[in-house]
From TrEMBL:
<keyword id="KW-0963">Cytoplasm</keyword>
<dbReference type="GO" id="GO:0000107">
    <property type="term" value="F:imidazoleglycerol-phosphate synthase activity"/>
</dbReference>
<comment type="similarity">
    <text>Belongs to the HisA/HisF family.</text>
</comment>
<dbReference type="GO" id="GO:0016853">
    <property type="term" value="F:isomerase activity"/>
</dbReference>
<dbReference type="GO" id="GO:0000105">
    <property type="term" value="P:L-histidine biosynthetic process"/>
</dbReference>
<feature type="active site">
    <location>
        <position position="11"/>
    </location>
</feature>
<comment type="pathway">
    <text>Amino-acid biosynthesis; L-histidine biosynthesis; L-histidine from 5-phospho-alpha-D-ribose 1-diphosphate: step 5/9.</text>
</comment>
<dbReference type="InterPro" id="IPR006062">
    <property type="entry name" value="His_biosynth"/>
</dbReference>
<keyword id="KW-0028">Amino-acid biosynthesis</keyword>
<dbReference type="GO" id="GO:0016829">
    <property type="term" value="F:lyase activity"/>
</dbReference>
<dbReference type="GO" id="GO:0005737">
    <property type="term" value="C:cytoplasm"/>
</dbReference>
<dbReference type="Pfam" id="PF00977">
    <property type="entry name" value="His_biosynth"/>
</dbReference>
<keyword id="KW-0413">Isomerase</keyword>
<protein>
    <recommendedName>
        <fullName>Imidazole glycerol phosphate synthase subunit HisF</fullName>
        <ecNumber>4.3.2.10</ecNumber>
    </recommendedName>
</protein>
<keyword id="KW-0368">Histidine biosynthesis</keyword>
<feature type="active site">
    <location>
        <position position="130"/>
    </location>
</feature>
<dbReference type="InterPro" id="IPR050064">
    <property type="entry name" value="IGPS_HisA/HisF"/>
</dbReference>
Length: 258
């Protein structure tokens, strides 16, 4: 069994880490370089930085953050938000990223995934899917892929989009549940499991972690069976540490990296 990863997610806006609930109600959560250093020392397997600002200034600020972090931290860095072209990917990789995640840009231009994979390899291309349940109670569950930070329903089935994206060159799926994001109510296990069953690449569960049991549920086969769990609020606001998460997961039979 491959070891499961624990990945802190740092949503960055104008040089600060922020966090909201269901992509709204954003509040400050700290300095990204300090947090990255802390999570690295705690034993994080990777770090994910997502620029949630809308401007090129915000993206440039994030690239400077990545440069600073890359000088001090020697675990994989994934950078997303505002990555729209192979040139944007090149800038992120040159700043110190090991891979990039794309969401809206790939929905607008799916061929971008192929271009990125040809330029840097599929292992460097992460498709970020902001998924929201659109089925009514009593119906078979359905999720759509949303664009523009969860504001625009594309009408595209999230699971089918994951399958197509892997065919085009994505080497990993970062699966964000809009319904669960920041709520602390737990990951969308059904969505995570179904995407994982549909694609042959690693799936990262994201959105909803509120306690250690929920993180374990995202990783175990009878739960979400994700390859990794993204954690934000629980870490940023001091509710737990990477060591506590891994120790608890190991006690529950999850194979983790140390």
């Amino acid at each position: 069994m491959l070891a499961k990863r624990i990945i802190p997610c740092l949503d960055v806006d104008d040089g600060r880490v922020v966090k909201g609930i269901k992509f709204e109600g954003i509040k400050d959560a700290g300095d990204p370089v300090e947090l990255a250093r802390c999570y690295n020392e705690q034993g994080a397997d990777e770090l994910t930085f997502l620029d949630i600002g809308a401007s090129y200034k915000s993206r440039d600020t994030l690239m400077e953050v990545v440069r600073q972090v890359a000088r001090e931290v020697f675990i994989p860095l994934c950078v997303g938000g505002g990555i729209r072209t192979v040139e944007d990917m090149r800038l992120a990789m040159n700043a110190g990223a090991d891979k990039v995640s794309v969401c809206t840009a790939a929905l607008r231009n799916p061929a971008l995934l192929t271009e990125m994979a040809r330029a840097y390899g599929s292992q460097c291309v992460v498709l970020s899917i902001d998924a929201k349940r659109v089925s009514e109670p009593g119906e078979a569950p359905r999720w759509h892929a949303f664009a523009k930070g969860g504001r625009e329903d594309t009408g595209i089935d999230a699971i089918q989009w994951a399958i197509e994206a892997v065919r085009l060159g994505a080497g990993e799926i970062l699966l964000n549940s809009i319904d669960a994001d920041g709520t602390g109510a737990g990951y969308d296990l059904e969505l995570t499991r179904r995407v994982g069953e549909a694609v042959p690449v690693p799936v990262i569960a994201s959105g909803g972690a509120g306690n250690l049991d929920q993180i374990v549920q995202a990783l175990i086969p009878e739960g979400g069976n994700a390859d990794a769990a993204l954690v934000a609020s629980m870490l940023h606001f001091g509710k737990t540490t990477i060591q506590e998460i891994k120790t608890y997961a190991e006690q529950k039979g999850v194979v983790v990296r140390w």
